[in-house]
Write a structure and sequence with these properties.
single chain; about 200 residues; mainly alpha; Butyryl-CoA Dehydrogenase, subunit A, domain 3; disordered C terminus; enzyme inhibitor activity; Pectinesterase inhibitor; PCW_Enzyme_Inhibitor; C/VIF1; signal
């Protein structure tokens, strides 16, 4: 018996009508966990995208239900981005002659040095000790420093030069807010294990 290409197309169409909706409706429980955690943050979509796209998070939640891994992921994102921003700030500062912009950049460089070398490592150590109040304090301070940097640079006459830096700065600020929100979901100084 010879099967025609039309028969194969009809068979595939019928199969897709029945099976694709079932596949699309079923979300893995770990994705549901990510969405549940991110709903409690101020930047839901950024949180979901960050946690879903981070291989460490996917690997971590596949083997564990301890949501401290999500805090680690958000801190790792900030730890990766902050030194890049610091380098960009130093590059722009070396190239500018605008005194007002140089002053704003000096402030930002000091802020991002503190974020990179002090606050994020301190928050990461706090996660290791299950000290989520310490995580919240460090992440809040880092977010506030990023916010202050953005405001000072936006007040300069050369703001156009800083548009890309502004986006990166806002990203760090938002990731810090997400970190604080996730850390807030823990009971004081203990890991929260989900069923």
């Amino acid at each position: 018996m010879k099967i025609s290409s039309l028969s194969i197309i009809i068979l595939l169409t019928i199969s897709s009508i029945f099976f694709i909706p079932l596949i699309q409706c079923h979300q893995p429980p770990k994705l549901d966990l990510i969405k549940a955690i991110c709903r409690k943050t101020p930047h839901y979509h950024l949180c979901v995208i960050t946690l879903k796209s981070n291989l460490y998070a996917v690997k971590y939640i596949a083997s564990n239900t301890d949501i401290s891994g999500f805090v680690r992921v958000t801190l790792k994102v900030v730890a990766t981005r902050a030194p890049v921003i610091l380098h960009q700030l130093q590059t722009v500062q070396a190239q500018t002659k605008d005194i007002q912009l140089k002053a704003a950049l000096d402030n930002c460089i000091a802020s991002y040095t503190k974020i990179s070398k002090e606050l994020v490592p301190q928050a990461q150590k706090c996660v290791d000790k299950s000290d989520y109040n310490g995580v919240k304090q460090s992440a809040t301070t880092a977010g506030n420093l990023a916010d202050t940097c953005g405001k000072k640079c936006n007040g300069t006459t050369s703001s156009a030069v800083l548009s890309q830096l502004g986006d990166s700065n806002q990203y760090v600020k938002n990731m810090c807010a997400i970190t604080v929100s996730i850390a807030t979901q823990f009971p004081q100084s203990t890991h929260q294990i989900l069923p």
